[in-house]
Write a structure and sequence with these properties.
The structure holds 2 protein chains of 2 kinds.
Chain A lengths: L1 E5 L3 E5 L7 H12 L18 E4 L2 E4 L10 E3 L6 E3 L2 E2 L2 H9 L14 H6 L11 H5 L1 H5 L6 H11 L7 H6 L14 H5 L6 H14 L13 E2 L5 E2 L1
Chain B lengths: L1 E7 L3 H12 L4 E4 L16 E2 L10 H12 L5 H20 L14 E2 L9 E2 L5 H15 L3 E3 L2 E10 L5 E10 L5 E11 L21 H9 L3 E2 L4 E8 L9 H4 L3 E4 L12 H13 L4 E4 L5 H7 L1 H11 L8 E10 L2 E3 L11 E3 L4 E2 L11 H23 L7 H15 L7 H15 L6 H17 L14 H25 L17 H4 L2 E7 L2 E7 L1
Parallel strand pairs in B: 1-2, 1-9, 2-6, 9-16, 15-17
Antiparallel strand pairs in B: 3-5, 4-5, 7-8, 8-9, 10-15, 10-18, 11-14, 12-13, 13-14, 18-19
The chains are: A alpha+beta, B alpha/beta.
Chain lengths: ~230, ~550
């Protein structure tokens, strides 16, 4: 089987493997053919978020993707490539800080199963960065808080233990919830089946409930949908 | 680059230590060879033990007794008692900072039964317990503004001599993976939280590729002592082809182990050493072994074990709702590690250790499921506070010149190794050697043969080396240094395993299948004197 991997140029490699994950194939190449091939990996079971790359233009976890003949493997987009398939996640992770994606105070509130279900999926996020690679807004505005940071804000804001909702929501008004185009690309590539787009819509609703408005609204003659998003 | 407390490793243990050292007033710096959220802690699935009694009657005493029993006489009762008493508080703290635990109908943290436990004691978040705890801790660290330096690989602990000619730790040398430069970090206290060494078993391990024991190897080189290194836990149920973990909670919920004839052959909820041996015996007889959770039903599996279903489908091509899961036991957790006292301090003054890399003597010869997440919270707090305390009184020199030079020389030297022998091949060879001869069942002859093979590999290391000579992001170089660390630990594991002429917990000697309390109810201690490995049994 032959695949091409983006290094400084695309390089073609051939391996004799069937039904193998991309991570297994990368390992085979590195240990048997070319020790200079560079990629990130960790748990090999889709939980550590290290090995996200793009295959044929789509973001996948290398450990969770079965290689096909002729696959084209590239690093994530919208991020500095350090070497071959390894990218620098510092910038994207710093957006969690900018978004203040944490619980404000310690809390002794008891949660019900319904409370817990509210952010069960969002708290499955592994920070693999696929969503930032797929996001067309982040591609042109690197101040945009972006999908996983906003999902993380929703994960805390929707939690009964959070007592600083107003401040959290206020913090995501600029370069945040209203900048998203709701294109849903982030949802399509998430290996944990999280929809940041849906979380952003929920954050918009919450924003409107708390008295915030879409800053671009004044430019529109359209009206608001029930969830606070403009309808045209 | 100076701090009061330098923490090496950013899994659960390192992050809890950081939060607590920071809260106690220390200037904290965290160094990790990866990013915090990529650490081994994410892979913990089953739960974290605390006798809350939310799902059935339980008590701290029962937790203590279960832990001691599973430890086969090698746990320190005082440490175990401390951990179990602190457990409810530890879980309440996790709950208070936002961990998304699964809940009972009456708004309590849900609990389930894991192997060797007399009650449903493991608090869980579906089968993503480690992931959710780690990410919440990470968010907490960010909220506190604690500095994290990612992609720095530990080379050595920096030591100096005090006025009485006694060594103390005062920093670490690291390789900045991104730049390829050696960096030195000075610190009054250093905490090692770098995880275990199950990757010596290479593909026969559930662990992430980073569990190479770097911190443990650095600690013994710096003058700390290691203990009980021969005790390595094999998890009964890893996927047969990929060694990926299927949580014990699958058996806790009623999953069965079956052989090729479809027969059950053991108590699935016995401690892991017993279950792993029972499976090993079946495999030796030529049977295949399967985990069967079909009778639990799709609704329950999707609700409580969603990750297990996903992993079995992806890596073994079976859907556990309808099919049997082929499994085998593989290396999962290393009970041995850096010896610490009741303040989490090692024999080297100023050097602390916590998490899987440390031996707080709470797991003894066999760890109970649900006690490792607990350990990192309880002792992470202790290590963070002790390190802060030590830093406040620290008034010595932090000169790092000599060690920075030698670290630079080390990197230059290994890049010039001759590459006549491929270390990746040797790494795989050691993994197979250890799985077959230093695994679930051992005997003196094969242990000695393995030691001979390891000593030969040690001699050949200068004939290996990285093929990639580049400076920037050289993972071939990092993997080679990890390999060298693992070879160093392999020798220690073998020397300890050969000395222990008895069977106890995870150390099963087919040639001497009995426990011998008279001679061996003691810890195996290893240390180095002038680079020579020494080992002895001590209380």
């Amino acid at each position: 089987m032959k695949i091409k991997i983006k290094r400084e140029e695309f390089v073609e490699y051939e391996v004799a493997m069937q039904n193998a994950t991309l991570l297994e194939v990368l390992g085979e190449i590195k240990t048997k053919q070319d020790a200079t091939l560079t990629y990130s990996s960790g748990c090999r079971s889709s939980i550590c978020g290290s090995c996200s790359v793009r295959v044929n233009g789509k973001e996948v976890l290398a450990c969770g993707y079965k290689v096909q003949e002729g696959d084209l493997v590239e690093p994530l987009r919208n991020v500095t490539v350090l070497r071959d398939l390894v990218v620098d996640m510092e910038r994207a992770y710093s957006l969690n800080v900018k978004a203040k994606a944490w619980q404000t105070h310690e809390s002794s509130i008891s949660l019900t199963p319904e409370d817990e279900k509210r952010n069960e999926v969002q708290s499955d996020c592994i920070l693999c960065g696929s969503c930032y690679s797929a996001c067309p807004v982040y591609a042109v505005n690197e101040e945009f808080l972006g999908p996983f940071a906003l999902t993380r804000v929703w994960r805390y804001v929707s939690d009964a233990r959070e007592d600083g909702v107003q401040t959290k929501i206020e913090n995501i008004q600029t370069n945040g919830v209203w900048d998203c185009t709701l294109c849903n690309e982030c949802t399509m590539v998430c290996p944990q089946e999280i929809s940041s787009k849906a979380d952003i819509e929920k954050l918009r609703s919450k924003s409107v409930m708390l008295g915030f408005t879409d800053p671009s609204f004044s430019n529109f003659s359209g009206s608001f949908g029930f969830d606070g998003s403009p309808s045209f | 680059m100076r701090s009061d407390v330098l923490i090496i490793g950013a899994g659960g243990a390192g992050l809890v230590a950081a939060i607590n050292a920071h809260a106690a007033g220390a200037k904290v710096k965290i160094i990790t060879k990866d990013y915090p959220t990529r650490s081994q802690t994410t892979m913990a699935q089953g739960g974290i033990n605390a006798a809350l009694g939310n799902a059935g009657e339980d008590s701290v005493e029962a937790h203590v007794q279960n832990t001691l029993k599973s430890a086969h006489g090698l746990a320190n009762e005082e440490s175990v008692r401390f951990m179990c008493e602190q457990a409810p508080k530890a879980v309440r703290w996790l709950d208070s900072i936002g961990v998304c635990f699964s809940r009972t109908k009456d708004a309590k943290i849900a609990q389930r039964t894991l192997g060797g436990a007399s009650a449903p004691r493991a608090c869980y978040a579906q089968d993503y317990t480690g992931l959710k705890i780690l990410h919440t801790l990470y968010d907490r660290v960010l909220s506190a503004g604690i500095e994290i330096l990612n992609e720095r690989y530990l080379l050595n602990i920096i030591t100096n001599m005090d006025d009485n000619n006694k060594p103390y730790a005062c920093g670490a040398t690291v390789l900045n993976i991104r730049t390829g430069e050696v960096e030195s970090y000075e610190s009054a206290s250093v905490i090692i939280a770098t995880g275990g060494y199950s990757r010596v078993y290479h593909k026969h391990s559930t662990n992430a590729i980073g569990s190479t024991g770097d911190g443990i190897a650095a600690a013994i080189r710096a003058g700390a002592r290691l203990s009980d290194m021969e005790f390595i836990q094999f998890h009964p149920t890893a996927l047969k082809n990929s060694s990926i973990l299927i949580s014990e909670s699958a058996r806790g919920a009623g999953g069965h182990l079956l052989n090729s004839k479809g027969e059950r052959f053991t108590n699935e909820l016995a401690p892991r050493d017993k279950v792993a041996r029972a499976i090993h015996n079946e495999i030796e007889k030529g049977e295949e072994v399967f985990l069967d959770i079909r009778h639990l039903g799709e609704k329950f599996i999707d609700e409580e074990l969603p990750q297990e279903r996903k992993l079995a489908k992806l890596y073994e091509n079976v859907d556990p709702v309808y099919e049997l899961i082929p499994i085998k036991p593989v290396a999962h957790y290393t009970m041995g590690g850096i010896e610490v006292d009741k303040n989490s301090q090692t024999k080297l003054k100023g050097l602390f250790a916590v998490g899987e890399c440390a031996n707080h003597k709470v797991h003894g010869a066999n760890r109970l499921g649900g006690n490792s997440l607990l350990e990192l919270v309880v002792f992470g707090k202790q290590a963070g506070e002790s390190a802060c305390e030590h830093a406040k009184k620290f008034d010595k020199s932090r000169d790092t010149t000599t060690q920075t030079t030698s670290a630079n020389n080390f990197i230059t030297d290994i890049k010039q190794f001759t590459n006549q022998i491929d270390f990746y091949q040797k790494r795989e060879f050691i993994g197979n050697l250890f799985y077959n001869h230093v695994g679930i069942s051992r005997d003196e002859m094969s242990l000695r043969a393995a030691l001979e093979a390891i000593r030969q590999i040690q001699k050949e290391i200068p004939l290996m080396g990285p093929k990639d000579k580049s400076k920037v992001y050289n993972t071939n170089l990092i993997e080679f240094i990890e390999f060298v660390n693992m070879v160093e630990l392999c020798e220690i594991i073998l020397v300890c395993a050969i000395s222990r002429n008895e069977s106890r917990g995870a150390h099963f000697r087919a040639d001497i299948p009995q426990e011998n309390d008279m001679a061996y109810k003691a810890h195996t201690i290893a240390w180095k004197e002038n680079d020579v490995l020494c080992a002895d049994f001590m209380e």
